Amino acid sequence: MWEDLIKKRRQVRAAWDNKKVPSKEEVDTLLKKCLELTPSKNNLQPFKVHVIGPDNKKELDIITGICALHKTGSVAKYELEMDNNKDLGHKRPPYTLLFTVRLAEDNQFTAEHEKRHKQTDIDVGRTDKRFSQSDPVAFRRTANRNLASLEVGMFIMSLTALALEKGLSVSFIQSWPIWDWDENENKYVVETNKYGKQWSELPWVKEAPLHVLQLGYKADFDDPLKTNSTDPKGENWENKCDPNKIIQYH
């Protein structure tokens, strides 16, 4: 059943149904169920999910604009040609989820484990935390961002299956101005977007973005920007690579 559900997923780009919209309660139930189901190292879950809903059209459009990194391409072209005075209709998803890094709180296990194995770092004069996801100094480092990204990926696969089971569609986006943590300066260095909007237009985004996901019902018409991974004779066929080029046994 899970396999059949996942095969049904298609990237929706311009065919969202904005008349049939899942309720906040439905979305909240899905997200909390995914938190129960998705594995997390030491159950610290070092990521945050920002949910931008259908009543916040301005920020939904800002996120889309932030993801417009290139002059061409569906998202960028849409943003460049967008008329701010007219309704975007089917191009705007009812919900956009922005996943960011989060400073995790110690749970009972990690707190007790750290207490048993407390170490002092003489060079910097501070307690060296054993779980860097909950370390205010280390949680933004590359290794922890990579770990959080992995966990977000697993969370999204759980969400995808649960959403498809309820007739909802999800689309994945992984293009935006990059955030890098400068440990010497103790601050993020954020790439400037040459073509779209800037992260500074969402001042509540204070930690590195990890993933953007769109959620809603697909509109009952053909998506002009859809991809095709099933029909070799169809338009925009995204054929997959030969598995033997990916899987290597040692």
Features:
NADH Oxidase, 250 residues, globular, four-stranded antiparallel sheet, alpha+beta
Order of helices and strands: HHEHHEHEEHEEEEH
What's the architecture, going by CATH?
A: 3-Layer(aba) Sandwich
Helix percent reads 25-40%
**Number of spatially distinct domains:** 1
Largest sheet: 4 strands, antiparallel
Q: How many alpha or pi helices?
A: 7
Say which CATH homologous superfamily is assigned.
Answer: NADH Oxidase
The CATH topology is given as NADH Oxidase
Strand content: 15-25%
SS class: alpha+beta
Tell me the strand order in the biggest sheet: 1-2-8-5
Q: Could you give the distance between the termini?
A: 32 Å
User: pLDDT average, as an integer?
Assistant: 86
From the alpha carbons, calculate the radius of gyration and give it in angstroms.
Answer: 20 Å
Q: Which CATH C-level class is it?
A: Alpha Beta
Number of strands: 8
Structure description:
With 250 residues, this protein is α+β, with helices and mostly antiparallel strands. It has one domain (2-104, 139-246): NADH Oxidase (3-Layer(aba) Sandwich). It is 30% helix and 15% strand. The chain is built from 7 helices and 8 strands. The protein has helices at residues 2-8, 24-37, 57-66, 74-81, 108-116, 142-165, 243-246, and strands at residues 47-52, 95-101, 120-121, 126-127, 169-173, 179-182, 187-190, 209-216. Strands 1-2-8-5 form a 4-stranded antiparallel β-sheet. It has a two-stranded antiparallel sheet with strand order 3-4. Strand 3 (120-121) and strand 4 form a beta hairpin. It starts with a helix and ends with a helix.
